[in-house]
Structure formats: structure tokens, C-alpha cells
Amino acid sequence: MSDRYIDFANSDLGRRLVGAIGLPSPARLERWQAGRLRPVEGALLLGGGGLANKVASFASRLTDTAYGAADLPSWTAGLGPKLKAVVFDASEIVDGTQLARLREFFQPVIKSLDHNAHMVILGRNPRDLEDPEAHIAQRAVEGFSRSLAKELRNGGTLQLLYVAPDADEQLEGALRFFLSPKSAFVSGQVLSLQASARQVTDWTRPLAGRKALVTGAARGIGASIAETLARDGAEVILLDVPQARHDLQALAARLGGRTIDLDICADDAASQLIAALPEGIDIVVHNAGITRDKTLVNMTPDYWDSVLAVNLLAPQRLTQALFDSGTLRDDGRVVLLSSTSGIAGNRGQSNYAASKAGLIGLAEAFAARLATRGATINAVAPGFIETGMTAQMPFALREAGRRMSSLGQGGQPQDVAEAVAWLAQPGSGAVNGQVLRVCGQSILGA
Amino acid sequence: MSDRYIDFANSDLGRRLVGAIGLPSPARLERWQAGRLRPVEGALLLGGGGLANKVASFASRLTDTAYGAADLPSWTAGLGPKLKAVVFDASEIVDGTQLARLREFFQPVIKSLDHNAHMVILGRNPRDLEDPEAHIAQRAVEGFSRSLAKELRNGGTLQLLYVAPDADEQLEGALRFFLSPKSAFVSGQVLSLQASARQVTDWTRPLAGRKALVTGAARGIGASIAETLARDGAEVILLDVPQARHDLQALAARLGGRTIDLDICADDAASQLIAALPEGIDIVVHNAGITRDKTLVNMTPDYWDSVLAVNLLAPQRLTQALFDSGTLRDDGRVVLLSSTSGIAGNRGQSNYAASKAGLIGLAEAFAARLATRGATINAVAPGFIETGMTAQMPFALREAGRRMSSLGQGGQPQDVAEAVAWLAQPGSGAVNGQVLRVCGQSILGA
């Protein structure tokens, strides 16, 4: 699963060669290490409108060194310290001339970014705004934000978060993810934070006391999700097909969890699963998935049906059953593993892309119903992730997948797991019915 | 503005070389020729649900040779004639198991496509559906549709059109565009048709009797838009800056229109324009735009302000003024020239992308208000188009822009103009507040 080009490009010789002949120069990305306490290890700068003050009220829990708009002249003069994190509140930009504030704020800031700096622009969802001028201006912020994300170097990331007027209290949980290495492979994304009953969260073990089910947990991304949920305090229940029992039990032993051997496509899968979870479940991660790639011309009925059955119909039926039976507890969290193929489509994957697009539909369609019990359902859409599966791709295709993104590399299973673990937190009720890409701002899109 | 690689790849020698060493093989795209009568010159196959019957009721106006679902066994047996157009109604797919109908229908069809075949899948907007299972299934159709579009060869295209329950009457106008060479460079797109008062349309001169204003009309895409609107029967009024007067007048003389010399950023631009249009205007195409590319680090205030002023603030102010003054007539059509950069963002174009994203916001924000008078406002987002501007790009960047799309080539200004001309039709009221990409299914996306 290693991308040796990153090692090369970051070696002494490699750096010179890469610079001289214009090769891609992917950065080494920092990841979250178990036991780390602060989301931001370095300087945080806050600017823009009044939401920056809200962030300032909890900034001391994010970092030791926070700066506000009054300090901006230091960076304008080129004298500010290197920045590890930046938050700019653009939500008060209500007409097109005020967009210049984005240029004014970010220009000096960009010059002072530390490596692996994480930035967030706060805005309002244009479609929620009555005033057409404000709608237009906020829509323009997205174009700015996606462009600037593409200009960042050294592992820098930038997201745009829409904050509903009554969702200020939801900011800390979101910024703990988006300003920290937990979101190392997320960039150029747009996500909405809605009002939600705030849950008291122990930020060092945000999943403490929560029971989490992970399907397809024996290997790869599923195993990484299980590890990350366990790291964050969850009691994990690992599910996979009976053939994977050996790997699954070894992982469960290591993580102190238990296992369920189950074919999620079996006719009685739902009743079996409910029976296996007599105490209920707080977190359900539908990670199990298969690929059977063929262009449609060569697609067999079996290839079509099996991919749809495992990837879409099983999560749909199980989610419905877990909810209807009350097995999914109040304030539950359901996370679906979609894919950038489900967003953009992919040659040779009409079955897979249909199933992964359907999962986005599942999150959209079930969100309101789950919200009646304080629960949420969201999709995570990985782009190119370094796994055993991608290691077997032909060289040219694998290299294209790795490099055709703003971060110029594939992600690690942990990157997907961190996004899942964040959405699984009790404090993540602000996000519901949405899809979060973990793709390094892959250029692939719809 | 020519792409000589297409000529090479379609030559005798080129075809053999391209096949042998795996180079891209972009097809020669057919375009609409003035004087052509039928949207489809060849066989049309209709299948799927009940909307196919609706299409059958006017199919004889689309083509001489239409086939229905009863004829499908001919293609399944490999005996059907080559198909130039295909419409499949997927709107009755209401659960995931029914998605297999897509595979069953399209598999034999794909094998029998003529060159430059145009296909449309009809569906329902998932977000309009009450039933979660139907929502999920319809969302899955998008993943299928975008994937299949990426598998087509020989200039084939495929779109997904969401048809609101009471929008059946809007189908003919949309299919006349999407099944004909007018949409040669549009593929993999999703668009919604809403109910709308149907306007009687003379399909041979769909813009007859309509007055159309085109800004930035002296050259390039603007000139092509003016020509295409005139071809379709509109009386054209060409606007550009005073410096472009010579080119503008030559074009107006050729098209039988008149000119307006105006700097759209002037303080009194709106009142000057209203005064210049005493009889009102039916169609307004905001095409004028500039680029001033720099990464944000090097972006000057002037580069920022001028791009925002020309590309976004001027169209916003003029649209508002034309509407408020009643100069935009009832059933008017406003079309804004956005860009795939406004959707996906682009390195070195934070100003341009902000302005072009803002135009998408302008369409969204003004749509409901314009609808109160039967008018619409939409954005067209060109991808890589062969113009004087793109001819000056560095070779590698130009080649990447051309090839990184399903059609493997850049579009022509006419392709953008055809999309504008379609949205400008009286019969296009079904589309409002939306953005239509003309990008050959460029892989760039958000």
C-alpha cells in the first residue's frame, strides 16, 4: 500500500529533480496519532465576521496559540508566525463587492502557512438565503474556496462549511476535525452544519460508551475504521462474511471487541443482526462492498445483481430494520461508504457507481426520519485510497488516480476512518443526509 | 482553433496507430447544419416506462424511423438496425431491484449504436420523491447514467433528464436538443424539466419574432451565439465595448442585427441599456467575460476587482434592472455564461471561479422571481472550448484540457451557442435556475 514516489519526491535528490523538471510534488501528510490532545499544534488565525468570535470562545481548547483579526497586520507585513490553522468567517459577505475581503484576508495568510496547514471558510448555504444578492455572493465563495484549495502546497487543505444561523454550537466538533490531521486527505469540500441538540462530548475519547457495528471489518478500510472507532473509545462489533472469520477474530481480539459472522445479503440477515444486537447499537458503519467491474456491454446479470445486492440493497434493508426495530438507539449514527465513482460515474463500473450513488440517496432519503430520534445518516465518499485493491491496479491507472488530485497522492485507509469516526461522534448531529468526500480534492467530479 | 489530433486519429494511418498504442481516439462530432429539419437522422428506439409512450406520440416529428419496446428483441438478437437515438424511461424504477432494467435495456442497445448516437434516460428528481425506496433507486440511476456516458465511443452522448410529474409536455423541446447534434458536446449531464406553460413553437425557426441581446458579441463564443440565435430566427442586438466596434458592426451587418457600444461596468450602464432597448427584449445572453489569471498569492486588487466587475456584478445589475424596468418581456429568457471553473474551481483562477460560481448563484437566486412573469434564467457552463483564448494555452495544459473528457476533445463555440439557443427558446420554460455543462463530460467536477 505504499506510494514510493512520495518518498522519492521528498528526498534530497528527489526534491531537486522534481523542481527541475516539473514533476508532481506530493507532500508527506501528517496524520492524527493516538494520544494526541490538541487538534492544532501550532498557530491558529481567526478572521472575518462574527462567527470568528464564536470560534475564539473555544480556541484555547483547539490550540495554545490563537490569533484574531486584530493581529492580521503582522501577516500583512510578513512578520506573523507560520500558521497551522486558519478560520475565516465569510458568512457576513452579502454582496459581490464584499467578496474582495476573501482576497484581502487570504493573500498574506497563504504566504505564511506552515506545512500541513488546515483552513476553513465559514459561510451560509446560498439556498437558505432570502436576499438574492447574498445568495449570489455566498455561491461565489464556493468558487473561490475550491480554487484556493487547488493552489495550496505542502499538504494544505481548505474547506467551506455552511453554518445555519442556529448552528454556532456545532462549530467546535467540526473544527476539531477539519483543522486537525484527522482531515489530512479532505480538501476543497463543502458541508453544511445544521442546528442540533448539542451532546456533551469527551473530546479525548469522543466515542466512549458507544457501541459501534462495522460491516466488512476484516480487512482494508473496514479494519481501519474499526481500529479508529476503538481508539476513540467505542466498543466495536465486527461483522464480515463467515469466510473472513479468522482475520475478523484476530482484529476483534486486538481491539477488545466481538464479532458477528453474517452474510448481509442473506434473506434473514436483518433478523439475525437484530438478534445479535440485543442491547441495541449506537453506530452503524456500512462498509462492506464489492466490485465486479465490466463495461456494460460485457456486464453479466450476476455481476450487476451481486454488486447492487451487497453495496446497496443490504445496507438499505439493514438500516430500515435496525431503525424500525429500535435496535438503532436514539442519537444513533449511520455512516455509509459511498465513493467518488458514485458521484462522477466511472467507466467499467456502471453497477458499482449505481450502488454507490444509491447510498447517497439512502442518506438523503432516511435523514429526516432518523432525525426524529436524534439520529443521523451520512455517506463518506473515498477517492483513491491506498489499499490492497488499488495496489493491484495497472500502473498508469494507479498513478493517474494518485496524482490527479490537489494533494497529488492517494489517501490512507485511516483518512476514511477518521471521517467516519467524526461523523459517528455524538457531537456530530449537525451533519445529516450529506456526503463527505475523502479524496484529496480529486479532480473527478460530476 | 483546430485540434489537428482529431484529424490524425481519424485518418487511415492514425486509426491504426491509435489502436495499436492505446492513444486517445476522439471522434469527429456531427454538428447541426443550418437548414436541417429533423433532430434525428436515423433510427430512434424508445423503451422503459410510460413516458416512452408520451415520446412516441411526437416521435414522427423527431425522425422517420422510431421503434418501441416491442421491437427490442431485434436488438437483443443483434438484428436491429444501427441506432442514432435512444430514450429510456427509468422514472418508474421505484426500488433497487428494478435497477436491473437499465442493464437489460441498454446492454443490447450499446452494441448497436451508430456513430454520434444521442441517448436520454428519463427519471424523477430523487429529492421530489416521498417514498425513500424510490428516492434511493432514482439516485442510483444517476451513478449508472454518468458511468455509461463514460463508456460510449464514436461521439455517443447520454443525459439524465428529471421529468416532473406534470412536465410531460416539455419533453419534445428538450429531446429536440438532447437527441440532435445540437448537444454534440454535452454528455453525462443531469437536468430537471419542470411544468411550464407550453409555448407554441415553430421548430424550424424556434426564435422567430424574438429580440435577443448578446453581450461580448464581437468575437469568439459571443459571436457564435449571435450567429446561432440569428439562424434560429431571432433579431439580434449585439453589445460589446466601444473598442470592438469594428468587428461588432461587421457581424451585425452579416446577421441583419444592430449594435450597442457599451461598457457594461459603467455606472450608468443599466440606464443606457434600458434606453437602447425601448421595445423591450426577449432574450438576454450575458456572455461578456474576462480572465485575469494569477494564483491568489500574486493576485492584484485590480485583477480581482475587474474580473468580478465584468463577469458577475455587471450581469447581476443589468439583469435586475432589465427585469425591474419591464424591459425584459414576459416569457423572457436570460442565459448566463458560467464555466466548469465556477463549478470545480481552478488553480490560478480564484477571481474567475468566484465570478462564475456567482453566476450559478444568480440563476438560482433570480429564478423564482423571473418565473412570476413566465421568464427563466439559467447558466451554461462551458468546459474546454476551442477558441482564440485556448489556442494560446501552453501545449501540455491545452492537450490535458482537450483529452480529459469522455469525448476526448475540446468543444466548438457552436456547441456552447446551441445550448444557449435551446435555453432561449419560448418552449424551454421547463428549465429554470439551473446550470447546463457543455464540456464533453469533462472529468473536472466538484
UniProtKB/TrEMBL annotation, chains A, B:
<dbReference type="InterPro" id="IPR036291">
    <property type="entry name" value="NAD(P)-bd_dom_sf"/>
</dbReference>
<dbReference type="InterPro" id="IPR057326">
    <property type="entry name" value="KR_dom"/>
</dbReference>
<dbReference type="InterPro" id="IPR002347">
    <property type="entry name" value="SDR_fam"/>
</dbReference>
<comment type="similarity">
    <text>Belongs to the short-chain dehydrogenases/reductases (SDR) family.</text>
</comment>
<protein>
    <submittedName>
        <fullName>3-oxoacyl-ACP reductase</fullName>
    </submittedName>
</protein>
<feature type="domain" description="Ketoreductase">
    <location>
        <begin position="210"/>
        <end position="388"/>
    </location>
</feature>
<dbReference type="GO" id="GO:0016616">
    <property type="term" value="F:oxidoreductase activity, acting on the CH-OH group of donors, NAD or NADP as acceptor"/>
</dbReference>
<dbReference type="Pfam" id="PF13561">
    <property type="entry name" value="adh_short_C2"/>
</dbReference>
<dbReference type="InterPro" id="IPR020904">
    <property type="entry name" value="Sc_DH/Rdtase_CS"/>
</dbReference>
